Amino acid sequence: MMSKKSCQVMVKPTGSVCNLDCRYCFYLEKEKLYPERKNHYRMSENTLELFIQQHIAAQDVDEVIFAWQGGEPTLMGIPFYQKAVALQQRYANGKNIVNTFQTNGTLIDSEWAHFFKQQQFLVGVSIDGDAALHDEWRVTRAGKPTHARVEQAIQCLVEHDVEFNTLTVINQSNMHHPKRIYEYLRSLGSRYMQFIPLVERQSDNGSSMLAHPREGKVNMMPWSVDAKQFGYFLNAIFDIWIREDIGEIGIQLFEQTLAAWCGLPPQVCVFAPECGSAFAMEMNGDIYNCDHFVYPEYKLGNIYDRTLREMNSSEQNQCFGSDKMRSMAQECHSCQWKFACYGGCPKHRFLPSASGQLNKNYLCASYKAFFSHTAPLMRVMKTLYENNIPPAEIRTVLV
User: Could you say which of 130, 226, 286, 291 is catalytic?
Assistant: First the structure.
């Protein structure tokens, strides 16, 4: 079985530990896997060094991306990341090192912004819209609003010329306000946006089953995005973006869709034909197949016992990747949008398909609505691309 040339690792130096208590957060559930974190939640320097050494060595490409996430990664403090950067330089072996950092933003100040700018970190800030939309879900452990602090953090990043993007979770509340959200994010200076659908269902006992699909009755958690509304949300933003901001603002899903139309490699694992090699690492060095499958049966090993390169080329990882296509609903194989979707993320496949199996993507209706709505202009942009004309030039004929 051939090994993959590279792997990505979403590393969580604090595990699930966070200074917020977002009402829709699923990752706090992972505290049950690591109960010892209540008293000790910091990744050790030994684990940090071993990870950096192995992650660089596991890549057969010239660029190595380190993705620092959480929980809340700022809880580790700046000295931890200064140490990380020094170790990256020690083990780089001529490779280009890129650091990305996903944060809730509440602890970002001038000192953090200066560090990010100095070390050229790309910072992703979670913000769900304006104050009313954001503060409905994203609150402190005391239930206090956080929007003002997040907006202040973004302003701080702008002042220090830090490259940043915004990550917006689309839920039952803000899914009805696409134009309002888009214009607000644009006003903050966001030049790259990710819109993440919140899909969370209940088990029979009422607990969350966001990341671990199993057979059973489908009851959605009340904060989940509607299966169709997410598509309408995307369409509304696309119609503004394509006429006003293409070439100036990047939107992950739109760029991914255009890449699919142009036959380019997938930029987002959700729409890739295979899963795999996008790992999650816990603070103790445990490696899981995916951030959405941090469960015992998806554990690949620990970096103290097996190297990342070994885990990347393991049979378990290869099978996890190919299972995406094998488990896809039969009707997906004949769907006209298969080339752009490939059945979406396996964690969202829990609706009954035509065969009666529970393997249809919850967001299927949304994806079909979006791909159908955008197809005419995607075709035009594909033609521009094939004629060596920037696809953004489409804006000149739409105004």
Answer: 291
